């Protein structure tokens, strides 16, 4: 009571009135800024197609007016000469509520950002929504953990030992769960980097199939034979993945051989026949056709063209049409396809008789 009496005697009624007026003015200014700032951001967000302004508008709405009342009281107390301990208490209260408000802003921002990303993910890649939810949760936990440590530091606690203990505990947990954590981070890498998404046809080593699900620990692929292939996310990212779904066009190389008895004038015409057979097909781009080499049983020609579509069925139908066209052309021109043959030369000895 003596301290309060001394405090009341040290300042007149006018000083307290001014301090209260400053506190109310700061609090009203915060309320006005929140009201008009939120309305302005909401109006701007309605006029644009971007979502970042919606996220910021929602973040501003997380401002707590009653929560920031200690900040206004601290602003008013600066006009008064208060005892050191009382001033420190008011200052500390204002600082703690500012940290709490910052945590609410960050948490709301992460929450709205995650909702937007999850909404997009469900429309494009449903399996990525779970990983995005985990990222958002981890980000909120990290933000509140940092603010808690800062608050404890302001309250006078020695957080060095706490941080060291958390670090040692984190290392122990990480060592005990390194396989699980490795797959978890690999799952996040797949979601963020997108080497493949659900629906892509991929080849991993000698295994191939369509991606059905990207989980937290495993990725499931449906093979061409129908069985379900389950890959560990960590092992999958360590492998060389061939994603055929991202292929813009397909390069096709094939060879054929004709017999050695083919006349030279026919050999000179064959590259043109090959070109015509390829260009007769739709959605193809001819690259080259050459007499490549002398084979063991054939004169070998090599053909390269591009199919302007990644569809495998279309590729097989196009290749079939080219093969049939070449078969008909060669038959019409009297050129024979080669097949493995062996010529046997027999040296007979004159005068020899079988006994």
Q: Approximately how much helix is present in the residues?
A: 55-70%
- Quaternary structure annotation: single chain
- Count of strand segments: 8
As a whole number of angstroms, the C-alpha radius of gyration is 39 Å
End-to-end C-alpha gap: 143 Å
What series of H and E elements makes up the topology? HHHHHHHHEEEEHEEHEEH
Instruction: Strand order, main sheet: write it out.
Output: 4-3-2-1-5
Query: How many distinct domains?
Result: 3
Structural class: alpha+beta
- What's the overall geometry? elongated
Explain what you see.
With about 350 residues, this protein is α+β, with helices and mostly antiparallel strands. The protein folds into three domains: about 1-125 and about 140-150, no CATH class; about 185-245, SH3 type barrels (Roll); about 250-335, Alpha-Beta Plaits (2-Layer Sandwich). The chain has helices at about 1-10, 15-45, 50-60, 70-75, 85-125, 130-155, 160-175, 180-195, 235-240, 265-280, 310-335, and strands spanning about 200-205, 205-215, 220-225, 230, 240-245, 250-260, 285-295, 300-305. The strands form two sheets. It has a five-stranded antiparallel sheet. A three-stranded antiparallel sheet has the order 6-8-7, covered by helices on one side. A hairpin with a 3-residue loop joins strand 2 and strand 3 (about 220-225).
What are its keywords?
SH3 type barrels; 15% strand; 8 strands; five-stranded antiparallel beta sheet; single chain; 355 residues
